[in-house]
Write a structure and sequence with these properties.
Layout: H1 13-22, H2 29-48, H3 67-75, H4 81-87, H5 93-101, E1 107-108, E2 112-117, H6 118-132, H7 136-156, H8 181-194, H9 200-211, H10 218-222, H11 228-234, H12 236-241
Antiparallel strand pairs: 1-2
């Protein structure tokens, strides 16, 4: 079977997966965890067979449709799996980690970063989630997750500017106050990273990971004649797996207080 196959309604397996992923938002904790595990397995299988999780789905218009019809279709396009996971990274963290591990595109495949970019979506969600946070522990957990995902994206993906689109886009939830300081700091770090060459250690990590493809990488990294500290550096995602509640979709509120995420040196 082809991962590009579609139903009579022109829905694809990826669009159906996005619909199922969103079911975790309104499900019970137990159902959300079960749906999350299933979606994680399906996503991994689809990625292994060449599916592109960054492509949006929209119903096709009649053949020979003009530019206006095509633009209208794009306006009504459903968010891709990548968009959905980054827009709700705090609720779909394991899926976001998997997508970034596989080096998915972090921008709109059709229009590029000005349409949407991964860092932009992640920072917007972080800003909104921090405003809704009910405790210092929850805020620290949100910030640690965002930093971990950005570090993983820097390792496995190509980060693309703009961090914010060149033409202001109305925020879905306008707020009279400026963004939290933590969001401003992360945005400044991303902009600074794009204005200078990546550190040599990050380039080496990215190259070594590519040389060890295909997946899974961890068994191959563990066999390398390197100190454990360097192996952990090559696998930043392993430190995420050891964090409480980071391995499940839509974790419960009030997490234990934890320090900020610190990438391995």
């Amino acid at each position: 079977a082809s991962v590009q196959a579609c139903t009579s309604d022109e829905e694809t397996v990826m669009s159906s997966l996005v619909f199922l992923v969103k079911e975790t938002f309104d499900s019970s904790d137990e159902d959300a965890a079960e749906i999350g595990r299933f979606c994680l397995c399906v996503t991994e299988l689809l990625l292994d067979h060449g599916a592109d999780p960054s492509c949006s789905w929209s119903p096709r218009g009649p053949e020979g449709a003009g530019e206006e019809e095509e633009e209208e279709e794009e306006e009504h396009a459903e968010p891709s799996l990548t968009q959905t996971c980054l827009e709700h990274f705090d609720l779909l963290f394991p899926l976001a980690v998997l997508l970034l591990q596989r080096g998915v595109s972090l921008q709109c495949p059709r229009h590029g970063a000005p349409c949407w970019s991964g860092p932009q979506l992640l920072l917007r969600r972080l800003e909104a989630a921090l405003r809704e946070s009910s405790s210092a522990a929850e805020s620290a957990d949100l910030l640690a997750r965002a930093e971990a995902l950005l570090d993983l994206a820097q390792t496995c993906c190509t980060l693309t500017l703009p961090v914010e689109p060149p033409h202001p886009v109305p925020h879905p939830h306008p707020h009279p106050h400026p963004p939290p300081e933590a969001v401003l700091e992360l945005r400044a770090q991303l902009v600074e990273q794009e204005t200078r060459p990546p550190p040599l250690r990050l380039l080496c990590r990215r190259l070594l990971r590519r040389c060890l493809l295909p997946w899974p990488l961890e068994p191959k990294v563990r066999q390398l004649p390197l100190p454990d500290r360097l192996k952990d550096f090559l696998l930043p995602e392993t430190s995420m797996q050891r964090r409480p509640r980071w391995d499940r979709c839509r974790p419960s509120r009030n997490p234990p207080l934890m320090r900020r995420y610190t990438p391995a040196p």
